[in-house]
Every structure is written in C-alpha cells, then in structure tokens.
C-alpha cells in the first residue's frame, strides 16, 4: 500500500510497498520512487478538474515492476491524497497468456484441419500447408514433396502472401537434414539449420535477411509425405522449444492430409485407367455413315454399368462397319466388367462380322465356358455406305428390335429376332436387311429406355409406343440430336426415380452427300 | 428457320477464314441463334425435337470453331472446370463458355451436361482447378445447383454461376451462396480474368443459406409431386367433362403441364421467392396462348393445388400470388408478359 498526495509526493508506504519500491519513503517524489505508469495514473487521479479524474472504483492500472507485473487500485481520499493498493498479478498474467496462446493454437489447428480435410488434391494440400505455416508459425514456409524424378516439387509462401508453386532440380542432400526428412524413415526430429548454410532456392523471394530455419518432416501414412521448412527473418525471435513442438503437431496433420491426397490420386488414376476400357466410346461419322450414342448408368454416381455399345470401323474402305449394342444381366461394376469381356471377345471375332449368327454362336460358347458368366442380349448391326444410302444388316439376340425412322417420320421395327447369348448351348437368330435412304435413321436401344418407369403421374412405363412417337418427331435430325432427344425424354420420364442402365445408339444416312466436304475442309474436323 | 448443318458449318468456317474473332462468332452469332431457337419454340414455330436438331447443329458449329487453326491457343492462365447443373439438358451455353475460356488461354475441363455432384467433386479432387463455372438454365434445377455449389465449396473450390436459372440479376446465385455470378459468357470470362476468386471458407452449412427450408414444405411438395399431379388431374377430369374426350397425347401433355407447375412451385418454395413461380406461370401462359390454349385454363389447376396443399402456408400463398398475377397480366404471342 502506498499513499501519495496531490503533489505526487509519497505520504506513506507500508512494509510490503517498501520491498517493491525501496525508494518510496515519505517525502520522496513519486517520480523518483515508482515506475512512470504509476506516476501518470496518479496524476490522472489527482487532476484539477473532477471530470478528468477516473470515477470512484475505476482507474485500476497495470504495469511492470522489474521482471514482475502489478495491478494498482486507487482509492482517493477526501484530503486529496490517493491510496494505491498494489497487487502482484504476474502469475495470473502468465497463466492468462499461456491460456490465450493455447486457445490460439487450438483454433489454428482446427482451422488447418478443416482446410486440409476438405481437399483430396495434393497441390491444394501443399498450398494450404505452406500458407497456414507462413501466416502462423514463421515469416515464410516451404513445403517440399518427395522427389518425382529429378525434380523436387516445392510450394513456398511468405507471410501474408499467396503460395507459389515451383519445381527445382536440386539435390536435397545439399541441405543438412532435408534428405532425411523427405525419406520419412527412420523418424528424425526437427532440425535447425544455420541460415548461412541455406542454398538460395530454399529462401523464398520477399524474405531478405534470414534469422533462423527449422526443417520438420511431414509424417505420412507409411509413405513419406515431404518436409516443412519454416524460416524466420533476421531480427525476429528464434523458434522456442514450445513453438517447435507445436510445429510438429501441425506437421503431423499436414502430412496425414498430404499422404491421403497422394493415395487418393493414385487410386483415382488406377480407376481412371481401368474405367477407360469400360466407358462407352465417343461415336462420330465413319465412312460416310453417322453414328451417335448415349449412355446413362443405373446408378448416377457410377460411370459404367451393364449396357454397352461399340462401333468398329471396317478394316477396308467399303466394307461394313460393325455396331454392337447390348445389355448384360445385372448392374453396376460387376456387370460392367462383364461387358468388357464381351466387347473384347466381339472385337476378336470381327473378321467374321459378315456372319452375325456365327459371331453370336462363338460368343455364346465362350460365355457358356467362362466362370462367373452372366447372359446378355444384344443387337449387331453392319452398316455400309452404298451411294447416298446406307445398307444395314441387323441381328437381334434376345434384344428389343431396332427401330427404323424414315425421313418422313414413319417408324418401323426391324424384322429380326433371336435368342439371348450365354444361356443355352445353341442360339437361333434371324437377320434383317434394311436400306436407309438419306435422312433415314436406325435406332438401337436397351430395355432400360423402353421400360423406364415414371412419368408425370409416377409409376407408368415409358414403353415402346411412346418411344416410337418421340422418334417420329425426330425425322431427318442429326444423329446426336436424336440421341439427345431420346435421352432427355427418358430422363425427364424417370425424374429422380430409380432406373435401369439406359443406352441408345443411332445410325444415320446423312441427308446430304456433301456434308463431309464443305469448302474443301476434310471430313475429320466435323467429327469431334 | 432452316436446319442445314452443312450450310451452318460452312458459314462459320468462312467467317473465321475471313478473320472474324472466334469469341465474337461464338457469342454474337451462335449464342444469339440459339437464343432465337428458344424463342421460336416458345412461339410454337418449331417443335421440341426441332429445337434439339437446331441445338445439335449449333453444337457442331461450336466444334468447327474450336478446331479452326486460328483458334489454337496454348494455355497461359489457370485451370477452370465448366459444367452444367445436374439434370440440365441445355449444354450449349456451358460449351460456349468453355470455348471462350479456352480461347482466352485457360486450361478448361468441360464436363458437359448431366454431371452429378459426386462426379464433379471427384474431378475437383483430381485436378484442383482455380474455379468451377456452373451453368444452369432451368430454375427447377436450383436445388441441385445449390447442392453442387456447396459440394464444390466444401472441397475449397470457388464457384462462378451463370444462366437463366439464377434469375434476373443473378439473385438466386447470391441466395445459394455462389462465389460469383456473371450475366453471360463474356462477363464470366472477364470476371475470371480479373484475378482468382477467393477460396471459400470451410465450415459453411448449406442450411444457413436458406433458413426457410426448416418448414419442410419444399421437401414434402417435391417428394409428393406424382401424387399431387394424379389428384389434381382426377379432379380436373371431374370438373371438366370435356377432358374425358382428350386423346392419350392430350392427357399426357396436361399431366406434364401439371407436373411442371408443381416443379416450379417446389423451386419457389426452395428459394423462398414467389416471383419465381409467377414468372413461370406467365411464361407458360404465353406458351399456351401461342398454341391456342387460353391462359385462364391454368387457374382451375392452381385452385385445386391450393386445396391439396392447404396445410402448407407458403405453398398456398405462392399459388394464390401466381393466380392473381395470371389474371391481371396481358400476354404477347411470343410468350412473354408485356
């Protein structure tokens, strides 16, 4: 407790106050005895105008005394003196600061986790890691991924800036500790690096003088995820042990996210490669005949299913191309794998495409002999340009017969029928011959289209009749437009309801024979 | 309107050979032709199938432009994914935007129509683009658009949207939390050129955008659409004996019209905007009048729907507002309200 009068002269100091302020004796000037923050607080309390004084009960101030800190509570007395009650709040303040730091760190970790968890893209994870580290842990940060070939992928970020990506052909061995950190195993601790030993590529643009560098490994799930390099400018305080431990906590999260992203990318690329074989091909004009196809798998989140189609151009010009459209019993990936087998088998049987029955019989035998066999229905169509017309041979094997749309809007059914393949030892087929005049169209479809359930009232079947009606409006339209029209109508029909795989292929005789040679440009450019 | 693919593609290529800028050709010629196609359909000059034919020809014209030697540009900017809202069939606007962005030096992944949100998100994880450009022309697909926007933002990718679905001035774009909106392809390309869209903050909850969905009216109306159509259709038949003489086709068209009304009602409930429903009704009335059907024929259906949905205050208020607008607004033959 310390009492001082309006002239800032100490009136009284008790024993405890004497220990804190040894010079505070009665009669001594406050300015000589106590720190400046208390002197100015006293001046405010004893100001001439009452309005300038802090109201009673307020005016508590806080400040350092030596290496400790104190709170000072004033009590003004009627005689113009002020009693200052001093309370040591050092520990309280330290506890509060520690709590605040912990809170800030927790919030930072939560935010980092949210950002890192949201993406399975490796580049994005590296960006986020570099930016978060630069903004919260250091003045600049580098995220280095394990080498891909001779190059080291690096993302660097300076505090307040945005991450920049680069690839450097450098030797990680040149930086002490970096090679070990990038290997991920055996586990290595964070490592300090002498700033003068750092190669130029390690220092991002915008950071002039280096103070300290620390390299922390990014631990992954059994695979090395890379290394995090934190840099502080000259003059900034060096990394404390607590900060280093905290950086490791952050690195653990970033490393986990980066290795998950890497794993996902690998899996996705494997899926992509395998899927490419199973996806229906893009169709276009071949040898003067227009083709278009559309496919919608039963499960909208999958890209493949049990329906398939292919157009195999003839080996020799003038020979017919072979079109296949079929439906394997079942849905989803397993059915798709089966379609892959059938498509491959048919591809191998192409040399006998002039005899549909023989081709289908051989396929039938092969399906019967294979394990995990499923049966399938399909239509084969051999199409060859003949003058302006297109000659078709159509063979159905247990499949809905193709519909022929004439340019005047009439719709006919091709007279072909046959048994499905992969079920019985012998199959029977009946092939139809159809001539498409210019503007005529042949439509192959799977029962997913004709048996789609839905409609405005719900529960009704789309049906062949409705399909025929829809087609009759498509007379003389380009092949893609017919496909799109059928797809749109069936898609609107099923709405959000469940549906089977749906595939449709359209073969058209072009309406005008100069379609493929406009202005001397080659035909190829219209087929994209 | 003639449907001559060869002539169209020939004209387009000649224009490019003569030095016309590909972007102008795409946006000022092809896009405006496509706009006219839509108007012709509304005015009953062409059928839906013909609209598809015209669109397919326009699509080939775009392909021809894209392959022209004068249009080859090496990517110098970032990467953008262009897609349509799931369930959308009008892919041409997205296709045009994709080509314009490509011409301006972006690396573009054009995913086309019928892209489900899971596909799009898987694509974003794989490619990590700077932004997604999402095109939508049907207001009934706004709930799907919202799901897609939220999904893209959840993986840290900003979304710029465009197309008629997002309403006048892009009001539904803001409502659904899109990071940006552009009135047309050129504006979208300009917006993306101005600088990277800010990365969306994580932790955004879709329901925060639309607190009114708490009343579940959207969900219940959307889910019971076929039942509502059946109920209203049966009562219309009872009230108007003339309907019993309808052909199968006419009956189906009527059911489809009712289905559209409920779909747009659901979209209005989703966005909480009566104007969306009123705008659709006026447009439909115009289309009907162009086909010789009096617009007033919509009123009994609205009346019956109101009765079916009497427990849903927002739905009945929307239906009442629609009926009121229908009775006071004169229409033009082109299908647009005066």
Structure description:
The complex is a heterodimer of chains A (528) and B (338). Chain A has 528 residues and is an alpha+beta fold. Helix content of chain A is 32%, strand content 26%. Chain A has helices spanning 15-20, 30-33, 36-45, 90-117, 122-136, 178-183, 241-278, 332-348, 356-369, 447-450, 463-472, 479-494; strands at residues 2-4, 10-13, 61-65, 68-76, 82-88, 140-144, 152-158, 164-168, 191-193, 210-218, 226-233, 290-296, 307-312, 321-328, 376-386, 389-397, 403-405, 411-413, 417-418, 429-436, 441-445, 453-454, 460-461, 502-508. In chain A, the strands form five sheets. A six-stranded antiparallel beta sheet of chain A has the order 8-7-6-11-10-9. In chain A, strands 13-14-15-16-20-19 form a six-stranded antiparallel beta sheet. The longest helix of chain A has 38 residues, at 241-278. The relative contact order of chain A is 0.07. The model of chain A is unreliable at 513-528 (pLDDT under 50). With 338 residues, chain B is α/β, with parallel strands linked by helices. Chain B has three domains: 1-72, no CATH class; 75-209, Rossmann fold (3-Layer(aba) Sandwich), CATH 3.40.50.280; 212-328, Phycocyanins (Globin-like). Chain B has 15 helices and five strands. Chain B starts with a helix and ends in a 10-residue tail after the last helix. The interface between A and B is large, with 48 and 51 residues.
